[in-house]
Amino acid sequence: MTAIDELLGHNADYAAAFGKGELPSAPSKRLAVVTCMDARIVPLRALGLEEGDAHVIRNAGGVVTDDVIRSLTVSQRKLRTIEVMVVMHTRCGMHGLADAEFRDEVQADAGQRPPWSSGGFPDLEQAVREGAARLRTSPFLPHTDQVRGFVYEVETGRLREVV
Amino acid sequence: MTAIDELLGHNADYAAAFGKGELPSAPSKRLAVVTCMDARIVPLRALGLEEGDAHVIRNAGGVVTDDVIRSLTVSQRKLRTIEVMVVMHTRCGMHGLADAEFRDEVQADAGQRPPWSSGGFPDLEQAVREGAARLRTSPFLPHTDQVRGFVYEVETGRLREVV
């Protein structure tokens, strides 16, 4: 049995007990969370985010890429969110990943160079500050006064505010 | 009190009860899930994904953008995942969003045109097929034989396999 098959079993149980009907598409807390894809981060548990509460945007690192700006532009302009929480974390695989080396490695194996940066960063707190700054200065986001940046400690489960 | 302040309260409770120590960074199920940022999708509940199980990559739509390919390249090459599940959903705000109109609207308000596509799509099942196809043919992903695509029904909680 594959991992996906196992998850389909969980989903069948969930659907069988599904009693909430259709929730609104606009997040009730008017919040979007940007965080890393890391398997150890479970927003329902770590942040108490229930169904319908908030948009959750995740990629390798929780770095503020153009795709994150795109998603937040949709989130704020079409679905009325106003707050943004950027959550990067300790022990992240992107922390210390050297961009040129990673792309060299992919190129050596794939026969072509990735057209995107790896997203690696040398300093965690600085990366949070840069992500928040990128959001605060984005011309595409109508709401940039409630952008806050955090480090999540995978060792303790604790969020620490950076900016 | 802002929504973020409320979440910080939840996190303090979570951290106080945090007993799992530090989990490994590599997902135990060797799986990455690509899905929409939609507030109604809670992977822990809908898929039974516990801490440490899987990477979760989310953006507006669950569309396979370059940033998703970047994240999956890191996921497979650095953290040993091999399966990929693409989960788009019914009642998605990106379903039927016309790209040119959305960019016109942003341009009219922001004074400059976004350099990225909106990610809108006209047909849901077709968008899932295209996302899966983009992953299966990516030169950067070493594992493309276990890519499966689904529609999640926000009305019922049920996953339906498309491809």
Description:
Two copies of one chain form a homodimer. Chain A has 163 residues and is of the alpha/beta class. Chain A has a single domain (26-162), classed as Carbonic anhydrase (Beta-carbonic Anhydrase, Chain A), CATH 3.40.1050.10. Chain A contains five helices and five strands; from the N terminus they run H-E-H-E-H-E-H-H-E-E. A five-stranded mixed beta sheet of chain A has the order 2-1-3-4-5, covered by helices on one side. In chain A, helix 2 (43-46) links the parallel strand 1 (31-36) and strand 2. Chain A is globular. The termini of chain A are far apart.
Short note summarizing the structure:
2 copies of one chain form a homodimer. By secondary structure, chain A is an alpha/beta fold.
Strand-helix topology:
Two copies of one chain form a homodimer.
Chain A: H1 3-16, E1 31-36, H2 43-46, E2 54-59, H3 66-79, E3 83-89, H4 99-110, H5 124-136, E4 147-152, E5 159-161
Parallel strand pairs in A: 1-2, 1-3, 3-4
Antiparallel strand pairs in A: 4-5
Shape of chain A: globular
Helix content of chain A: 25-40%
Mean pLDDT of chain A: 97
* Uncertain spans of chain A: none
Number of separate helices of chain A: 5
* CATH architecture label name of chain A: 3-Layer(aba) Sandwich
Q: Write down the oligomeric state.
A: homodimer
**Beta-strand content estimate of chain A:** 15-25%
> What pattern of helices and strands is seen along the backbone of chain A?
HEHEHEHHEE
Main sheet record of chain A: 5 strands, mixed
How many distinct folded domains of chain A?
Answer: 1
CATH first level of chain A: which class? Alpha Beta
Rg of chain A over CA atoms, rounded to whole Å, is 18 Å
Q: Distance between termini of chain A?
A: 44 Å
Tell me the structural class of chain A.
Answer: alpha/beta
The H-level CATH homologous superfamily of chain A, spelled out, is Carbonic anhydrase
Strand order of the largest sheet of chain A: 2-1-3-4-5
Summarize the largest interface: chains and residue counts.
A-B, 93 and 94 residues
Number of strands of chain A: 5
Named CATH topology of chain A = Beta-carbonic Anhydrase, Chain A
